[in-house]
């Protein structure tokens, strides 16, 4: 996996069917070809599971990487409805989102996030670990504590080697899909909190390579507020990644 300066990740959630996913992937690939501005940016597209093989065909031979929106932590067995990391890897998936707030709301507790991170790393894929506070946690002044706790729980008791990569996506739950964004000073502060949590969980040792990114209602107009920060390396984009033109504007402005 190439080293990049920035990373922009599209999370299509359950918004596009297989045909639509294929079309948006094709359009994104076309708009990005010969785009010099995106040369140092790793672009990742995370379609629904069902659309992944079609999108993998579209992205083949391009610099756009394929990601998954989730995975299970066991490799094989009687786990109805689950998808293993090994199977994702076979179709060319390189990144996996884990602990997204929408999944945490459906019962994905920290212990499961930790098991999934372990499974993803063991297959050589990159976990995109989502952390972030709810509006109530923020109002009660617990934002930093919540984020530190989630980072620690996701990564503790995992042995890392320096070749592995981790992405931590800070996504305030109350901002996702709301049209609001936090200001860049706040994002810079939380990136420092995350960095300190990483140092704590790794006992002060050099951890695997990691990037910290921001997610939550990012648009072409706001992306640079986050990517210009010294301690943030990119964004996770939901709604604004569903239209190729808008998503490519985000990449160009990053
Ligand atoms: C997300 O759900 O990860 C996300 C960032 O969504 P949106 O950009 O729509 O807020």
Structural commentary:
By secondary structure, the chain is an alpha/beta fold. It has a single domain (6-253), classed as TIM Barrel (Alpha-Beta Barrel). 38% of the residues lie in helices and 18% in strands. It has an eight-stranded parallel β-barrel, surrounded by five helices. Strand 1, helix 1 (18-32) and strand 2 form a beta-alpha-beta unit. The relative contact order is 0.15. Residues 11, 171, 176-177, 215-218, 236-240 line the site of phosphoenolpyruvate (PEP).
The percent of residues in helical segments reads 25-40%
**SS summary, helix count:** 10
Q: Biggest β-sheet, characterized?
A: 8 strands, parallel, barrel
The ligands bound in this entry are: phosphoenolpyruvate
Give the overall average pLDDT.
Answer: 94
Could you say how many structural domains there are in total?
1
The structure class reads alpha/beta
Secondary-structure element pattern, one letter each: EHEHEHEHHEHHEHEHEH
Termini gap:
21 Å
Across the major sheet, the strand order is 1-2-3-4-5-6-7-8
Brief overview:
38% of the residues lie in helices and 18% in strands. It is of the alpha/beta class. It has one domain (6-253): Aldolase class I (TIM Barrel, Alpha-Beta Barrel).
What are the salient characteristics of this protein?
single chain; 254 residues; alpha/beta; TIM Barrel; 8-stranded parallel β-barrel; 10 helices; globular; binds phosphoenolpyruvate
């Amino acid at each position: 996996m190439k080293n990049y300066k920035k990373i922009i990740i599209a999370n299509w959630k359950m918004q596009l069917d297989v045909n639509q996913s294929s079309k948006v992937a094709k359009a994104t690939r076309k708009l990005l070809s010969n785009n010099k501005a995106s040369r140092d940016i790793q672009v990742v597209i995370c379609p629904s599971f069902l659309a992944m093989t079609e999108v993998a065909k579209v992205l083949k031979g391009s610099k756009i990487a394929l990601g998954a929106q989730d995975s299970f932590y066991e490799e094989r067995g009687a786990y109805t409805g689950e998808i293993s990391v090994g199977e994702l890897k076979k179709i060319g998936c390189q990144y996996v989102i884990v602990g997204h707030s929408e999944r945490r709301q459906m019962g994905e507790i920290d212990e499961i996030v930790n098991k999934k991170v372990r499974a993803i790393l063991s297959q050589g894929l990159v976990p995109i670990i989502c952390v972030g506070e709810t509006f109530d946690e923020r109002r009660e002044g617990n934002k930093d504590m919540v984020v530190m706790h989630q980072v620690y729980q996701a990564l503790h008791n995992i042995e890392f080697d320096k070749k592995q990569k981790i992405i931590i996506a800070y996504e305030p739950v109350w901002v996702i899909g709301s049209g609001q964004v936090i200001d860049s000073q706040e994002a810079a502060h939380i990136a420092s909190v995350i960095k300190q949590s990483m140092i704590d969980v790794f006992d002060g040792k050099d951890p695997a390579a990691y990037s910290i990114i921001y997610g939550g209602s990012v648009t072409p107009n706001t992306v640079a507020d986050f990517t210009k920060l010294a301690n943030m390396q990119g964004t996770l984009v939901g709604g604004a990644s569903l239209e190729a033109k808008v998503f490519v504007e985000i990449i160009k402005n990053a």
